[in-house]
Amino acid sequence: MARPPNPRTLPPALLLLMLVSLRLRADPLPTEGRLMNNCIQARRKCQVDPICSAAYHHLNSCTSSVSTPLPAQELLVPEECREAAQHLRNSSLMSCTCHRRMKNQVACLEVYWTVHLARSLGDFELDVSPYEDAVTRKPWKMDLSKLNMLKPDSDLCLKFAMLCTLNDKCDRLRKAYGEACSGSRCQRPTCLRQLRAFFEKASEPHSQGLLLCPCAPADQGCGQRRRNTIAPSCALPSGAPNCLELRRICISDPLCRSRLVDFQTHCHPLDILGTCATEHSRCLRAYMGLIGTAMTPNFVSNVNTSVALSCTCRGSGNLQDECEQLEESFSHNPCLMEAIAAKMRFHSQLFSQDWEDSTFPVMERQNKNPALRPQPWVSSLFFCTLPLILFLSLW
Ligand SMILES: *[C@@H]1O[C@H](CO)[C@@H](O)[C@H](O)[C@H]1NC(C)=O
Ligand SMILES: *[C@@H]1O[C@H](CO)[C@@H](O)[C@H](O)[C@H]1NC(C)=O
């Protein structure tokens, strides 16, 4: 796992790399086919080998017989399951992962957890995300020429909502969950499914802008809009369940369990200053991945950016500490808080630029017309300037 020692000191070589990678921005996103070792492919490979295949099937039957415990509890695994796990040692199944946007995601995650049960024999590492670790560094990309169409005096949450509306894909996905989650027709499972679809499929700048929009401290209307982004009245459980019970429900579902472990991996605070075990961008992605699961977090009020799970630790008995720890990994997590704050600063800087005077929208228009396209290097260097500035402001 790449853990940069100090993200603030960006070596020049990395800058150069980013410049070069920006030139390749027309490349399609890596798809599941290009994922290094996805669990569905690994399982296919395993099926060709009789020993591996038999061991996997055996282990699969173990998964259903071993009930999923709370993380603090010991996993009781029958001896023959341990043996089956041993046979998978050399298989590529041991290192396989899944992709957040892949087609058969749940099937892939099920394979991961079948094998991960084996991993847990001996060295149970709770915070090993089933998701591929590769972060595709792409420049912040949105059609900024559209900024001119926005009312200059609207709050930033409204502006980001309008940017989503102006983008066909974002608009379609947002309408879909808006409809499923609307008061009169609210069906929670459908609402949650559509919410997940939005955060999986809408482009990251759009979904992050919508959810992590900055509000002026006194602007309650803006804060309310932000808190309502995920349609909390339908998406969140009515009445606050116990947080440990919520986690039990989550862990019994391969998707929710994966998103939770992803969150624990990437939003793990290393100190009180907001340093994360990995990177802020990974933490935000993991945080947003939980929206639409049983453990959907949200802003707690209209006046600040504190977030929390929709649950309580009342009635946790002798598991009170464990419950509070879970609760605080959302509500008092310096890594998550700083990741959210940094993204909001970035979003407000975006709107404090004077795009009217910038040459950027002109360049963008020129780029769309091949006849006017300048020399490739000249164009890409100019074009790079803005995304690069936006990149750097993140650190
Ligand atoms: C795994 O590979 C090693 C060396 O490649 C070999 O010695 C060992 O027998 C293999 N184990 C299994 C269970 O296939
Ligand atoms: C945010 O507001 C809520 C409700 O008013 C409050 O309980 C919480 O402590 C506030 N968070 C911060 C960091 O001030």
Automatic annotation (TrEMBL):
<feature type="domain" description="GDNF/GAS1">
    <location>
        <begin position="39"/>
        <end position="120"/>
    </location>
</feature>
<dbReference type="GO" id="GO:0043235">
    <property type="term" value="C:receptor complex"/>
</dbReference>
<keyword id="KW-1015">Disulfide bond</keyword>
<keyword id="KW-0336">GPI-anchor</keyword>
<keyword id="KW-1003">Cell membrane</keyword>
<keyword id="KW-0732">Signal</keyword>
<comment type="function">
    <text>Receptor for artemin (ARTN), a growth factor that supports the survival of sensory and sympathetic peripheral neurons. ARTN-binding leads to autophosphorylation and activation of the RET receptor.</text>
</comment>
<dbReference type="GO" id="GO:0004888">
    <property type="term" value="F:transmembrane signaling receptor activity"/>
</dbReference>
<keyword id="KW-0325">Glycoprotein</keyword>
<dbReference type="InterPro" id="IPR003438">
    <property type="entry name" value="GDNF_rcpt"/>
</dbReference>
<keyword id="KW-0449">Lipoprotein</keyword>
<keyword id="KW-0675">Receptor</keyword>
<keyword id="KW-0472">Membrane</keyword>
<dbReference type="InterPro" id="IPR037193">
    <property type="entry name" value="GDNF_alpha"/>
</dbReference>
<dbReference type="GO" id="GO:0007169">
    <property type="term" value="P:cell surface receptor protein tyrosine kinase signaling pathway"/>
</dbReference>
<comment type="subunit">
    <text>Interacts with ARTN ligand and RET: forms a 2:2:2 ternary complex composed of ARTN ligand, GFRA3 and RET receptor. Interacts with SORL1.</text>
</comment>
<comment type="similarity">
    <text>Belongs to the GDNFR family.</text>
</comment>
<feature type="domain" description="GDNF/GAS1">
    <location>
        <begin position="157"/>
        <end position="234"/>
    </location>
</feature>
<dbReference type="Pfam" id="PF02351">
    <property type="entry name" value="GDNF"/>
</dbReference>
<dbReference type="InterPro" id="IPR003505">
    <property type="entry name" value="GDNF_rcpt_A3"/>
</dbReference>
<feature type="signal peptide">
    <location>
        <begin position="1"/>
        <end position="26"/>
    </location>
</feature>
<feature type="domain" description="GDNF/GAS1">
    <location>
        <begin position="243"/>
        <end position="335"/>
    </location>
</feature>
<dbReference type="GO" id="GO:0007399">
    <property type="term" value="P:nervous system development"/>
</dbReference>
<protein>
    <recommendedName>
        <fullName>GDNF family receptor alpha-3</fullName>
    </recommendedName>
</protein>
<dbReference type="GO" id="GO:0009897">
    <property type="term" value="C:external side of plasma membrane"/>
</dbReference>
<dbReference type="InterPro" id="IPR016017">
    <property type="entry name" value="GDNF/GAS1"/>
</dbReference>
